UniProtKB/TrEMBL annotation:
Keyword NADP: no
Name used for this protein in its record: DHA2 family efflux MFS transporter permease subunit
Matching InterPro entries: EmrB-like, MFS, MFS_dom, MFS_trans_sf
Family: Belongs to the major facilitator superfamily. EmrB family.
Gene source species: Lysinibacillus xylanilyticus
Annotated compartments: Cell membrane
Matching Pfam families: MFS_1
CDD domains assigned to the protein according to its UniProt record, in alphabetical order: MFS_LmrB_MDR_like
Membrane topology, from the record: Multi-pass membrane protein
Membrane-crossing segments per the record: 12-34, 54-74, 86-106, 112-132, 144-163, 169-188, 200-220, 232-249, 269-294, 306-327, 334-351, 357-378, 468-487
Keywords annotated in UniProt: Cell membrane, Membrane, Transmembrane, Transmembrane helix, Transport
Residue span, Major facilitator superfamily (MFS) profile domain: 16-492
């Protein structure tokens, strides 16, 4: 270990990491802030639901395209230049969104925002992996988890309150000054921590990656709305899959791949990736199903439904640094097993909610579920990254972020499909029973009674769909729990540089 690296590990660049934290926090917060505002934007610009959904879908697509390329950017450019470029793009996008005179300008502004935010998360993770030794990474990544988990969790609550009291543009007006201040601080205070290498970008790899990940994300994200039989859905999924297979094979042949797939030869990284994918799918169930249940079925206001999730966000925020320190002391396996057990139990109880489940019960269940989740995500991810040699850190962080994007989209699509299928089947069954009862009793209900009965049937059917989907989510979480028992504590292999090449000797654990 060089003297420079040793001094860096002894004194981590906390000021720099704080700047990166704030940048990443506002970027993730902005991703979730807009969801509750979509109806107001539809009304102002007179656009339909399909068009307005592109404000979220487009943001996610740009992330899916640029995150895989982040490994190249992190290795090629200095931390300061990269962060200032990313933050400048994000700030410009926020400003344009705030003053957008048309829907087209607003959509373009969201794309610019996404281009900036896509680089921030992998950059922050990579700086922390470089700045902290393995024995202190848990605490550092716990603080990172605070950003990654808390920002999207408080987004809906904050957004609901702002929309209730102000115009939707306030969502961008709130973020803009924070983004500008972060940019100013970065220009003066940011230093370079990660090493740079003069590598070239393989343009064909970038094209294949964009088509592959972009196609998968768009296809699966559209499946819930357009249906699996839509040529646009299965067409983009097929094209995306073929492009992704070609992209992977090309990366394995290149000496300097854009995204290094050989990192999956490290067993704990491969295992952590598998667990993270399964958890992401299970986690999305509550994020999708809870708003449908509390707003559509129970008629609870957006503000109150946001408040329902706030204690869970606070618990996750408090627990992330604590979990990080526990990880440093005890490792990932015990935390993951306890956390996933809590997640499984609470998710199962969500599969039993009814039309009159108390609001306080929902808050308690959701908060406990988030408590369980807080013990799983960052420890499992950090343990996997800990096995990678330092020069593969950019690829590890890029791969993790990419897999989370794709698994989130796939998980959402699958769970929405399961819910819709169960809802439709139950509605037909309940309608048939109602018709049979009316025929048996020779009763012809009034128009108002018929409408009320139809609404009741739809609510009952949707509740059944939600319950069934939570049960499927429980089974998915059980898979993650089984995998968690195979987690072992690891440290990175030693690296020796000879004639500019890495020679690796893997530490046996």
């Amino acid at each position: 270990m060089s003297e420079k690296t040793h001094s860096l590990e002894k004194k981590a660049p906390y000021g720099m990491i704080a700047i990166l934290f704030i940048g990443a926090f506002v970027a993730i917060l902005n991703e979730t802030l807009l969801n509750i505002a979509l109806p107001s934007i539809m009304e102002e610009f007179e656009v339909n639901a399909t068009a307005v959904q592109w404000l979220s879908t487009g943001y996610m697509l740009i992330n899916g395209i640029l995150i895989p390329a982040s490994a190249f950017f992190i290795q090629r450019f200095s931390d300061k230049k990269l962060f200032i470029t990313a933050m400048s793009l994000f700030t410009l996008g926020t400003f344009l969104a705030s003053i957008a005179p048309t829907f087209g300008v607003l959509l373009g502004a969201r794309m610019i925002q996404a281009a900036g935010s896509a680089i921030m998360m992998p950059l922050l993770m990579n700086v922390m992996l470089t700045a902290f030794p393995v024995e202190k990474r848990g605490a550092a990544m716990g603080m990172f988890g605070l950003v990654m988990i808390t920002a999207p969790a408080i987004g809906p609550t904050l957004s609901g309150w702002l929309i209730e009291h102000y115009n939707w543009r306030m969502l961008f007006d709130l973020v803009l000054p924070i983004a500008i201040l972060t940019l100013i601080f970065a220009a003066f205070k940011l230093k370079d921590v990660t090493p740079q290498r003069a590598i070239k970008l393989d343009v064909f790899s970038l094209v294949l990656s964009s088509i592959g990940f972009g196609g998968l994300l768009y296809g699966f994200s559209s499946a819930g709305e357009k249906g699996w039989d839509s040529p646009l859905v299965y067409g983009t999924i097929i094209i995306g899959t073929l492009a992704l297979i070609t992209f992977t094979l090309r990366q394995l042949r290149l000496d300097e791949p854009m995204l290094e797939f050989r990192i999956f030869k490290y067993p704990m990284f491969a295992l952590s990736s598998a667990i993270s994918i399964v958890i992401a799918v299970a986690m999305f169930s509550a994020m999708i199903l809870m708003p449908i249940y509390v707003q559509t079925i129970r008629g609870i206001s957006p503000m109150d439904s946001g408040l329902l999730m706030l204690p869970g966000a606070i618990v996750m925020g408090i627990m992330s640094p604590i979990t990080g320190k526990l990880f440093d002391k005890y490792g990932a396996r015990i935390l993951a097993v306890i956390g996933l057990t809590i997640t499984i139990v609470t998710t199962y109880y969500f599969s039993k909610i009814s039309m009159d489940t108390a609001y306080s019960t929902l808050v308690l269940l959701y908060t406990l579920r988030m408590f369980g989740m807080s013990m799983v995500m960052m420890p499992v991810m950090t343990n996997g990254l800990n096995q990678l040699p330092a020069h593969n850190n950019p690829h590890g962080t890029a791969m993790n972020n990419t897999l989370q994007q794709v698994s989130g989209a796939i998980g959402s699509a699958v769970l929405i499909t399961v819910m819709n299928h169960q809802t439709t089947a139950k509605a037909e069954e309940l309608a048939a029973d109602a018709m049979a009862n009316m025929s048996a009793n020779a009763v012809q209900p009034s128009a108002q009674a018929a409408a009320e009965m139809q609404q009741h049937i739809m609510n009952e059917a949707m509740l059944h769909g939600i319950n069934f989907t939570f049960f499927i989510s429980t089974l998915i979480a059980v898979i993650a729990l089984i995998l968690a028992f195979f987690i072992k504590r690891v440290t990175p292999p030693h690296e020796v540089k000879t004639d500019g090449e890495h020679l690796e000797t893997v530490n046996e654990q």
